[in-house]
């Protein structure tokens, strides 16, 4: 089974286990801390740094890089949760996840996308309406994901082709400003949900 399929099935199993249906996970931090008994902390890091997971004894800590983009922080937390779900941390050694692209990383990426934006939710939003950038915007706002994640999930659902997916992944969320009090993120946005850009803001 491919990493994409394993990640999708893992995310579905996680949602089913915890009775989450296909609803948006608006308070992802609380879900992770309560359902998985993990702590989440904000760390300073380089531009390439997104997140890491540390397990020591009976304690698991997810570290997420400080960022002006809470969509990235949410996807990073979901990605690290994928590593925990698939038991990628079997020993007490801290394993950083800054830039590695192993099969486990690919699987965790898929887990994160399907956890934050299940295909069932994509299909529900798309029912009886035109598949356009307004639909993309609705998915971004409702599920608090990047335009790149929403575009990939639309492609995975068979609703857009590869060319459209590539084009829409270049859209970004505009100037969301996270404020961290050490464990929570407060998100503020301007009126426009997405905008054109030269690079993905996933």
UniProtKB/TrEMBL annotation:
InterPro entries: IrrE_HExxH, Rad_response_metalloprotease. Residues 53-154 form the IrrE N-terminal-like domain. Transmembrane segments: none annotated. This is IrrE N-terminal-like domain-containing protein.
């Amino acid at each position: 089974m491919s990493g994409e399929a394993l990640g999708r099935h893992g995310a579905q199993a996680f949602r089913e286990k915890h009775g989450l249906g296909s609803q948006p996970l608006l308070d992802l931090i609380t879900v992770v801390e309560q359902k998985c008994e993990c702590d989440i902390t904000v760390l300073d890091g380089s531009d390439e740094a997104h997140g890491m997971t540390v397990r020591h004894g009976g304690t698991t800590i997810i570290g997420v890089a400080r960022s002006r983009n809470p969509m990235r922080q949410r996807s990073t937390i979901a990605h690290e949760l994928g590593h925990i779900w698939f038991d990628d941390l079997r020993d007490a050694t801290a394993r950083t996840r800054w830039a590695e692209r192993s099969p486990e990383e690919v699987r965790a990426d898929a887990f994160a996308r399907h956890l934050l934006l299940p295909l069932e939710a994509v299909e529900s939003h798309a029912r009886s309406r035109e598949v356009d950038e307004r639909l993309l915007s609705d998915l971004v706002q409702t599920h608090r994901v990047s335009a790149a994640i929403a575009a990939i999930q639309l492609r995975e659902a068979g609703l857009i082709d590869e060319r459209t997916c590539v084009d829409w992944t270049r859209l970004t969320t505009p100037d969301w400003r996270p404020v961290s009090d050490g464990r929570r993120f407060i998100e503020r946005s301007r009126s426009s949900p997405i905008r054109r850009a030269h690079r993905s803001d996933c």
